[in-house]
């Protein structure tokens, strides 16, 4: 059994690197440790479909990744967006440090508040160009674009509605398609 490191004060990325690989998701937000359980099947289905959708539309100069992959803009923050898009020039060994072009969070009952408030605020503050929130329970989709250092709504659809987006690159998202069972 691996013990969690004893930390006095703020957690750092070095502390997170020493945590056990036990199926839980460990993230760090401004020195505070966030722990969530493994994702559900619905969550994973939506993540997989979003990854495929973005990969198919991804132009040269960008790369699409999915969690777990750490985004570490500083020593007190280590977040794992469910899907992320970065410029090729920003890929480094081990993790991503530069501002993301897109961060996507797929909501789960245990992560909804964190994704809608804490992560949204941190992504906005760090200059992440676009932030998408997917709720597989509804199903619904919300896209936010960074304009003058603040997120503004770019699209909000549910069910079989369609969102046509330009950021991070042209792509169309239909929430129901992200969660429907395979044919």
From TrEMBL:
Entries under Pfam families matching the protein: Uma2
GO molecular function: endonuclease activity
Name this polypeptide is given: Uma2 family endonuclease
Keyword Nuclease listed: yes
Keywords linked to the UniProt accession: Endonuclease, Hydrolase, Nuclease
The organism of origin for this protein: Ornithinimicrobium faecis
Signal sequence, renumbered to the chain: none
Putative restriction endonuclease domain span: 14-172
């Amino acid at each position: 059994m691996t013990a969690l490191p004893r930390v006095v004060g703020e957690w750092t990325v070095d502390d997170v690197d020493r945590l056990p690989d036990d199926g839980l998701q460990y993230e760090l937000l401004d020195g505070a440790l966030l722990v969530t359980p493994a994702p559900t099947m619905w969550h994973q289905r939506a993540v997989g479909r979003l990854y495929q959708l973005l990969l198919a539309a991804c132009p040269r100069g960008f790369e699409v990744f999915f969690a777990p992959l750490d985004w570490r803009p500083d020593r007190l923050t280590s977040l794992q967006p469910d899907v992320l898009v970065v410029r090729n020039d920003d890929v480094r060994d081990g993790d991503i440090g530069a501002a993301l072009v897109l961060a996507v969070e797929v909501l789960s009952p245990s992560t909804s508040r964190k994704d809608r408030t804490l992560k949204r605020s941190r992504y906005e503050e760090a200059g992440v160009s676009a932030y998408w929130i997917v709720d597989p329970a509804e199903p619904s989709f919300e896209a936010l674009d960074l304009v003058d250092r603040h997120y503004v709504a770019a699209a909000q659809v549910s069910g079989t509605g369609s969102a046509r987006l330009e950021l991070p690159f042209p792509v169309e998202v239909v929430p129901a398609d992200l969660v429907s069972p395979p044919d």
